[in-house]
Each structure stands twice: as C-alpha cells, then as structure tokens.
Amino acid sequence: MKNVLITGGAGFIGSHVVRLFVNKYPEYNIVNLDALTYAGNLDNLTDIEKKSNYTFVKGNICDANFLQELFAKYDFTYVIHLAAESHVDRSISNPIEFVMTNVVGTVNLLNAAKHQWLKVGSQQSADSSQQTANRFYHVSTDEVYGALGETGFFTEETKYDPHSPYSASKASSDHFVRAYHDTYGLPIVISNCSNNYGSHHFPEKLIPLAINNICNNKPVPVYGKGENVRDWLWVNDHARAIDVILHNGKNGDTYNIGGHNEWKNIDLIKLLCKIMDKKLNRSNGESEKLISFVKDRAGHDLRYAIDSTKLKNELGWMPSLQFEEGLEKTVDWYLNNQQWLDNVTSGNYAKYYDEQYVKR
Ligand code: NAD
Ligand code: TDX
C-alpha cells in the first residue's frame, strides 16, 4: 500500500483531488493534511471520510518538526501539495500570511520530503531525466505568469511576472520546488492551472459569491468595468489532470492546465444571472439588476489564458465539460446544498477530529 500525502485536501480543489484518489485508488492510503483555516472544511469530504484508505490529519505546513514526524511515520511515496492561502484580495490586505504558508510552508514540505527520500548515501542525482519512485507534485497557478493583453497565451516557457502578493508567493514557491529538483535531485513536477469553478468553492471567489448573493437578492460586486478575462476550468477536470500528471508527467517538468474557456467577468456574471433567473423562477433580467460595479482590485491582472497543448499532446488530457453545462451543474449544486453555504458563510463548520490529530 502506497502512502500518498495530499495537503490542503479540505479546501476547494483539494477535496476534489482527495475524493478522486480515494475512490479511484483503493491501493493508496490517502493522508489528507490540512490546517482547517477558514477555507478548509471537512464537510467537503463527508462522502469519503469513512473509507478505509483515507486518513485525515490536522496540522500546519508551517510546523517543520511536525512535518518531519509525519513523513517518518508514513514514508510517503507521493506528495500532492495544494495547501495554500488562495484568495488574491486577502493577499492584498495581509501578504505575510501568504509568505508563511505558500513560501515557508512549501519549503518546510520540500525539506521533509528531501530528508525522507534523499537519505545520505542515496544514489539520487540532480539528473532531471531520472525517474524515481517518489514524486513531489506542486499545484500552482497561471497567475505566476502575470497578465496578458488582448491576445496570446501562457505557455510553460512564459517568463514569470507575478503582480499580486498571492501570485508572488506562488511564484516563489514554484522557484523553490524547481531549486530542490536542480540542487538536490528531488523528484518533482509542477502544474500551473487557470481559474477553477465547481462545487465546494468558498463563496469569497467570484462565481460562488455571485451565486450566493443572487440567491439572497444582494448586490453582485463586479470590479472595475468587468472587462478582466479569466480562463475557467471545471474543478473535476483539474483533479483529472493532476492524476494524469502525477502518474505520467516527466520528472522536473511543468505542465499548464486550462480550459480554453475565456470569459470577461461581466459576460460570465450576465450568463450566471440568466441561469439563476431560470432556476429561481424569476422573470428574465431580474437577477441582472443586482450587478453593481465597484472599485477595481489593486493591480488587477487584465487577462489570463492558458495554452495546455503540452498536456494534451504528451499526456492526452482534455477538459471534459463545456462551460455552460458546468456552470449550470455548479448552480444546481449550490441550490441543493444551502446548508453547506449557510455553514461556510457563518463560519459554523470547524469540526474537531482530535482522535486523528498527529500529536506535536
Ligand atoms: P482553498 O483556499 O479552497 O483551500 C486551501 C486549503 O489549504 C484549505 O483547506 C486550508 O485549510 C489549507 N491550508 C491553508 N493554509 C494551510 C497551512 N498552513 N497548513 C495546512 N493547510 C493549510 O484553495 P483552492 O482554491 O482549493 O486552491 C488549492 C491550490 O490550488 C492552491 O495551491 C492554489 O494556489 C492552487 N490553484 C487554485 C486555483 C483556483 O482557481 N482556485 C487555480 C490554480 C491553482
Ligand atoms: O467580488 C468579486 N468581483 C469581481 O469582479 C470578486 C471576488 C472577483 N472579481 C473579479 C476578479 C477577477 O478578475 O473576478 C475575477 C475572478 O476573481 P477570483 O474569483 O477572486 O479569482 P482570481 O483572482 O482570478 O484567482 C483565482 O484563480 C487563480 C483563485 O482565487 C486563485 O487561487 C487561482 O490561483
């Protein structure tokens, strides 16, 4: 039985990755390590929490000693690292938390993996073509590439040019992961994905925030003129890509993941309003009246768009779902899970799982 560490597995994307791996790989013992910050919610995983190949551990990646003990206990074969502070607006008001978790936390994890996998006397070398039994998979974002103008795409060769404290912290963590590969020969792989959407998305992010506000007849804040463009990918397709890259990606390589699905924020919100009118039996155009243009985000990147040709050509991955269908599915999920939404908006979801904590 291989032990597989997934960090941040109680968050939005992490919970989908945990679910996929627990269900698809009964031969893996999936250890979900999560600090349960405001964004981590064990209610995201109630359908799989009792499975025998799943273990939850509450812990913080900023605690280096705790990580070394955890690696010694489980001797992980793979690490899939998703734990992060993930919201750009929060990074603007509190950058240091992003440095601590996204940079220091990632380096702590790298150190723990290096300590466990590259013991003194091991035959590992810094040869990037070497395939090894272990793998440190770092989940990153397209935001490290900065902003595009009206045309063009981010490829794996695009120069890093982060603008927000969030993207700067993610860029820094990406550099550290590559440095551990180049310097110590740590077997790594990195993926940079575009904006995800789907179920269990915390309602501070654009799509779930808009759904929640429309339901409650509250204004839907659109930053600036709503001209900024994002490339949206269904979260389950991201999880599928992570599965493919973990198992078949090349040691030391980077893969871009995206849906070729660009939307101006204002067009996306208008589409969402139309879907919501239909679902809530409102007259056509009623939800759109809630759109409220507000002050722009500082340093707001104009456009992101991912070229995922490498992933398609080398590993055969393609998005599985059309955006309109995925958005409707997402709306349905939120309408059918009002209790989840009420719990996360009230902060009433922090559960204690003392018996499973790893003692410090
Ligand atoms: P999220 O904020 O929903 O979840 C983050 C999880 O990490 C939470 O469960 C939280 O409790 C946990 N966590 C935070 N700090 C921690 C710490 N110090 N120790 C242990 N656990 C901690 O984030 P998400 O949207 O699911 O993003 C997951 C990863 O994917 C992040 O690395 C993010 O940068 C990346 N990413 C996200 C998107 C997106 O559209 N959401 C796109 C591309 C890449
Ligand atoms: O209320 C809002 N109004 C608005 O117009 C919010 C919350 C956002 N926006 C705009 C800002 C962006 O142009 O909508 C777009 C999407 O915003 P977010 O949902 O905050 O996502 P973004 O900033 O693009 O970052 C997301 O994608 C990349 C994730 O939060 C990151 O973790 C991921 O790396």
Question: Would you summarize the structure shown here?
Answer:
The protein is an alpha/beta fold.
What structural keywords apply?
360 residues; alpha/beta; Rossmann fold; three-stranded mixed beta sheet; 11 helices; 12 strands; globular; binds thymidine-5'-diphospho-beta-D-xylose
The CATH architecture can be given as 3-Layer(aba) Sandwich
Indicate how many domains the architecture comprises: 1
Low-confidence runs of at least 5 consecutive residues: 125-131, 351-360
Estimated structural class: alpha/beta
End-to-end CA span: 26 Å
Beta fraction: 15-25%
**Bulk shape:** globular
The percent of residues in helical segments reads: 25-40%
Q: Helix-strand pattern, N to C?
A: EHEEHEHHEHEEHEEHEEHEHHH
Explain the overall architecture:
- This protein is of the alpha/beta class and 360 residues long.
- The chain has one domain (2-197, 233-260, 304-321, 348-359): Rossmann fold.
- The chain is 39% helix and 16% strand.
- It has helices spanning 12-24, 64-74, 88-93, 95-117, 165-184, 206-215, 235-248, 265-279, 309-315, 323-336, 338-346, and strands spanning 2-7, 28-34, 54-58, 78-81, 135-141, 188-193, 195-197, 220-223, 229-234, 254-257, 262-264, 291-294.
- Strands 3-2-1-4-5-6-10 form a 7-stranded parallel beta sheet, sandwiched between helices.
- β5, α5 and β6 form a beta-alpha-beta unit.
- α1 crosses α7 (235-248).
- The longest helix has 23 residues, at 95-117.
- The protein is globular.
- It starts with a strand and ends in a 14-residue tail after the last helix.
- It binds nicotinamide-adenine-dinucleotide and thymidine-5'-diphospho-beta-D-xylose.
